[in-house]
Amino acid sequence: xxxxxxxxxxxxxxxxxxxxxxxxxxxxxxxxxxxxxxxxxxxxxxxxxxxxxxxxxxxxxxxxxxxxxxxxxxxxxxxxxxxxxxxxxxxxxxxxxxxxxxxxxxxxxxxxxxxxxxxxxxxxxxxxxxxxxxxxxxxxxxxxxxxxxxxxxxxxxxxxxxxxxxxxxxxxxxxxxxxxxxxxxxx
Amino acid sequence: xxxxxxxxxxxxxxxxxxxxxxxxxxxxxxxxxxxxxxxxxxxxxxxxxxxxxxxxxxxxxxxxxxxxxxxxxxxxxxxxxxxxxxxxxxxxxxxxxxxxxxxxxxxxxxxxxxxxxxxxxxxxxxxxxxxxxxxxxxxxxxxxxxxxxxxxxxxxxxxxxxxxxxxxxxxxxxxxxxxxxxxxxxxxxxxxxxxxxxxxxxxxxxxxxxxxxxxxxxxxxxxxxxxxxxxxxxxxxxxxxxxxxxxxxxxxxxxxxxxxxxxxxxxxxxxxxxxxxxxxxxxxxxxxxxxxxxxxxxxxxxxxxxxxxxxxxxxxxxxxxxxxxxxxxxxxxxxxxxxxxxxxxxxxxxxxxxxxxxx
Amino acid sequence: xxxxxxxxxxxxxxxxxxxxxxxxxxxxxxxxxxxxxxxxxxxxxxxxxxxxxxxxxxxxxxxxxxxxxxxxxxxxxxxxxxxxxxxxxxxxxxxxxxxxxxxxxxxxxxxx
Lengths: 187, 359, 112
What we know:
The complex is a heterotrimer. By secondary structure, chain A is an alpha+beta fold. Chain A is built from five helices and nine strands. In chain A, 15% of the residues lie in helices and 20% in strands. A three-stranded antiparallel sheet of chain A has the order 2-3-5. The longest helix of chain A is centred in the first third of the chain and has 8 residues, at 10-17. Chains in contact: A-B, B-C. The A-B interface holds A 1-6, 8-9, 11-13, 16, 22, 33-34, 36-38, 57, 59, 80-84, 87, 96, 150 and B 52, 56-57, 59-60, 62-63, 121, 123-124, 127, 130, 133, 140-145, 148, 150, 158-159, 182, 185-186, 188-192, 194, 255, 285.
């Protein structure tokens, strides 16, 4: 290892002189991003239930959710592309897509509004907290396991079902998870 | 006695990627003392742990620094998992190890490039960073980000690598290994490089222990210590040998890091060969309560993560002792007696990471 | 695989002799951490020898002064200054003492 030589790198340097550049000529030549690339967040707003889990999971507080107005707002400049919101979304309506957000000269946020025609009666739709029909319940604890907020407590031995109304975000996941159809969303 | 003068060095200097300031006390051209000061980019990230819940903080821990991000995320997760008694699935342990070794390769290649740049060897700098690009592309493909990977989570990893991805990683590693040869030869045998590195900035074994050097810096002074042997991740099932050098000068530190690159190639191959099938994460219920110290080997040296939980989802304290915090005192020791012209090179050989140090 | 990593509680009087003993036994200082607790601080001094780690835990009151260990472990100054500046722990005779100039931040003791 201790030998001392000269011009070891000269060969490589000469090669580089006559080679194509190692870099991509970016604006003229489009870049091919891999599928997993975390570039920017997209939302399928029609599936969003404005539960606000993404807002609470965001470490840089880039997302604002207004439940009353039914809007979902993201500040693209605050977003750090960590995909924390994508991981917690109970409806999987948030997606991480490839491609960076375009630069802007002004800091602004982007707002999406939920479409108004709400199907309140539909299964799993939001609107109100889950209410249990105690006769149908078999205390299987599926609802408690699926609850993203851990708002439901089920005791199999005592045969009790309890809802923490503070924690509940009315996502309706428990309703769709219930095998006995014992849960119903009521306003 | 020659007249003493004080020369400020940094916080903005061509060789420094990050702001660190030194007041150099000179006698003619010789440095007789140095007072380091940091504090230009303090962000208070340790305090932020009280405002973000412990699962969210992984994303913040990763963003403490760009180059060490994989390790910071892992170290934090390991500490939380230890406190909460979570057993991570085997496949997740291997995946973490593969990503961690890849990040070691990219960090060392970055450092080699910066070293070449500090010596004014521009083409070698470009070549090192061209090779580093291969690993960054692999990160982009497997984790979704070139620098901030966001793969670790409490209880395992967020993403799995399928077999085609693992093959891609292997291919990138062998490509890299083939192309590394002229670079390694240049760093270790070239006349000009040797004349800059050999004999400068000697840190003796005794000083390394007394001043608390860690990582490649400590190993270059002849101390056999590699925190990977503690066996976190999948390292307890892989072959890790601490790589040491006896000289303790800049050349020794360069040699250690170059050899660690090849060790990482081998570790990745071994890990890909041994990786078991199975789930990559386990669900986490409850909140951490208790305290724990975790040591892991970052590319720059041993880092220590301490968490203290109080049973709620907000932790009481998160402490990160980064390798650079430990390496600054020995660097100051090393600077004494060197020439002013060698100062940039010496500072660089500790591989300073000021963002980590200040958090 | 499981290497020792224990936390030993020490009193203020035992602390300095314990540090000197560590130095005598060739432990290297790896970490100093301050944590705010009710009415005071918890100081953790971690030492490593080979792959083992011992942490000395010192509980102090908010206005209690403690001695710097830079006389024994000169490399402790960065982390002691950090504890003094961010948490407001009163540490006597750190050499060199940065006197609140290590971190260039506006707020005094922001982590207190």
